[in-house]
Amino acid sequence: MKHPIITNLFGILFALALLEISVFRLSLWIEEALRLLIASIFAYCNHSVLKKSYFSIHSWFLLIIAILLLLFMKPLEISEKIYLIANGATGQNLLNLLRANGSKNYEATVKIYAADSSGKADTSKVVATKMIQVNLTKEQNTVASQEVYRLYNKMSGEHLYTTSAYEYNTLTMTNSSWSGEKVAWKAPKTGNNVYRVYNPNSGEHLYTESSFEVNSLVKQNGWKSEGVAFHSDSNSGTPVYRLYNPNSKLGAHFLTMSSYERDSLVKAGWKSEGIAFYTIK
Fold first, then answer.
1. Which residues contact 22 (CB under 8 A, 6 or more apart)?
2. pLDDT tens for residues 136-148?
């Protein structure tokens, strides 16, 4: 004899598997599953009517409903990751969290509620509902930026960096020692100051975020401060490394965004001075 409670439980499991309901979606169906379980217990008490069936009537009914749902309903596609990152957020906070998760499409239910006597929405009285598609695009970097040009002096071996197109063009057109190497990177228009100091004895320029280093070079070593050259994006930018060549009197410092180039120069005898500042990614 087949027990209806067992066959109904088998039907429930089969239907859930058919609908591909994840652990996170199970809560959407738990109430209905409990109702069917109660019905199964009731059927067990009256199993004499159903004892000739391999599946009970309730099992077949559940299976038919599952197939209809599979064919005619499109479940809300919310991934496990979204459930985890939402963490109870609502409104604009929820939208920001979803947008940070990447550019994706979501299906959402919009509900219109009737107003109560105070004019506020009465969530127990739904006037209308509508399914809509929501396309959220990952928020892009909106930091205002400016181009940083690089020049190379073949006489001194120095690289010069400037945000001034005028300085860049003037040096390349009026001084044959300088050759333009176009845009090196983009720097934010605001952020931490990156100072430029000049050594009149060697003709070298140095770039640093440290005002202490600027003051020390100016007061103790005869360097000239040339003010703020550009800014650093220290929150999420790409690091620019500074290296020093102890064997060179001219062009002793070098900047690079390449960790490979940094490591290669260190192997060749240069000294790494760490991260000088950050550019925009």
1. 80
2. 676 555 678 899 9
